[in-house]
Amino acid sequence: MNPIYFISDLHLSSVESPTTRSFFDFLDNKISTPASLYILGDLFEVWIGDDDDSELAAVIQSKLTDFASKGNKLFFIAGNRDFLLDKSFAASADIEILEDPCTITFNEMKIIISHGDFLCTHDSEYMDFRKQVRSQAWKDDFLSKPLEERKQIADDMRDASKSASKNKSSEITDVNLNDVDSFLQKEKPDLLIHGHTHRPDLHDLEYGDYSTQRIVLGDWDTFGWCLKLDANGPDLFKFKIE
């Protein structure tokens, strides 16, 4: 049984950054191939459309294509930073785009995977913003603008997001545990795997005769984070970014 891997929240922003170099090393040396790699959102710090002409976009596309050519499978769920990544880039990079949340099966386990921000309902301001920018009308309008204008809008939105986050408590920016409980008891997965909150951990949960586990992936900052899943079960591990 080939292992599967889950990562999220790399926030890649430049070709020469330590995080980008660590991501390339991860693909080359930390995955037992052939394998399936699920990227659960925010691979990029920002994505302004598949016509992005940046060096970073081209280099990442090439690296992912090379990874897939070795018999590996790539899957992607959009995050709040790269929700405009679409079919054109996915096709060029040999990535399959999945819905959020998405149910997969591994070793007879039902696993639900997600970026995770749909569960952050304490933050009503963010949820309103999420609804707006995920609408097809907003996407069509944004993508109709010239590339340079989109870059400026994205920079302004990112600055506004960082400023707003400074004034929000950790409880507001984390998942709503009541909504997590309701979601899990309704869907009854063996595992729920998500990112977004930058709070890596394994949470064992029990609801009467039903038990499950919620695994939160970490963001790639001081460390890179990955969840490996094989016949031995889940292994959430980290490695130094240098």
Question: Could you name the key traits of this structure?
Answer:
single chain, 242 residues, alpha/beta, Purple Acid Phosphatase, chain A, domain 2, 6-stranded mixed beta sheet, 5-stranded mixed beta sheet, 8 helices, 11 strands, globular
C-alpha-based Rg, rounded? 18 Å
Q: Give the CATH class.
A: Alpha Beta
> Strand fraction band?
15-25%
Q: Mean pLDDT score, rounded?
A: 96
Sheet/helix structural class: alpha/beta
Lateral arrangement of strands in the main beta sheet: 4-3-2-1-10-11
Short description:
With 242 residues, this protein is an alpha/beta fold.
List the helices and strands and how they pair.
Layout: E1 4-7, H1 18-29, E2 36-39, H2 55-69, E3 73-76, H3 87-92, E4 95-97, E5 102-106, E6 109-114, H4 124-134, H5 136-143, H6 147-166, H7 170-173, H8 177-187, E7 191-194, E8 201-207, E9 210-216, E10 223-230, E11 233-240
Parallel strand pairs: 1-2, 2-3, 3-4, 6-7, 7-9
Antiparallel strand pairs: 1-10, 5-6, 8-9, 10-11
